[in-house]
Structure prediction request, 429 residues.
Amino acid sequence: MRASQHQLIRPGGRRRVFAAGLLAAALALTSACTDGGGGKPSSWQGGGESTAPKAAATISEPATDAKDVPASTGITFTTKDAVETAVELKDAAGKAVEGSLSSDGKTWLPAGALAYGTSYTATVTATGDDGKPATATSTFTTMTKPNNQIRVSSFLGDNQVVGVGMPLIVKFSRGIPEDYRDDVQRRMTVTSTPAQEGIWHWVSPTEVRYRPKEFWKADSKVSYRVQAGGLPMGDGWYGRADLSVDIKIGASVIMTVDNKTKRMTVTRNGSTVKTIPVSLGKKSTPSSSGTMIVIEKLRKTVFDTFEELGPEDGYRTKIDFAQRLTWGGEFIHAAPWSEGQQGSVNVSHGCVNVSMANGEWLFKNTQIGDPITVKGTERKLQNGNGWTDWNMSWDEYVKGSALPYEPPADPDATTAPDGAGTPSPTPTA
Prediction:
């Protein structure tokens, strides 16, 4: 238990007074012996003047006495000659606000949006190698709650288990102007265990995605956060609330289809577990070559193409074990009518046809986010036709970031993404 100030000072005070008396007496005797009656009087040297701290701190934002400060504000500061820096933010009642430093170490961000119309005081304390602290303070008031607010949403929900190719998908209820996307992206963080390098990629003004440089490692834990509450997002609009999601990556299930052999190879955590005969799209309706992701899974559905193909070529067919790969209507699905051609001839309208038994096996052993690469067909996959994040090289993907890409100094350190959001009503079989 910490002693009171009274308890700390009184005993030591007596000893210090006593010691000071002895010192004064000794000095008086020394002076009488050496002064000789005609010498210059003795004087104290050095005195009690205290030196200024070596370190210094300055808060640049928010400026002191600032009004109408966004509720998303961070504390931007600089220090000089500091070996230790502490940042503290309190409301008018003295209640501390939780927060942490940004990745660049120049801004302290609150853990959540601040309250609207509230006064806060920020204090930055810098301590130099002399052990003396220097402080800077700024008292400011947040803005009133804005009328124009943008909702932020995630495709994935907490505790969802997804495949190793799953991009993290965040959407905004209103387009974010280009000039504001870098500010928004600075408030978007991803943490993975084990750590994996990755980056955000703007697909459109209303959608941004994140993918790692390589497929997610199996059984990873991934958390992502968008600190959007009160954040200016252009044209007088502000983020409505923060968003945070925790997911898990499942086993590494990867499908590869070779048009030359008419076979699908399925690997699980690096080992081949099944080889499946397939029939791909015929020449007039070829399947797309490229890397796609399982977008949705439908145990039973109906493919209706009359609206797209017309009364002469259209069809309406019941389908089992369907897994969507593109918005344009390419699926993996069971096709019992083509089992005689699977493994030898392409007869589909662009889908990956498999037998009923293999369709059921795939359906049970795959999940949303599992990747499939199709090779050797007459048509290339168009970026944007599905979750085509892995159909781009890493260098291409990086170009979609609103912030310059900086490779991590320590790759093992934990790191503090024209989407079509609705499936096509006219799939192909």
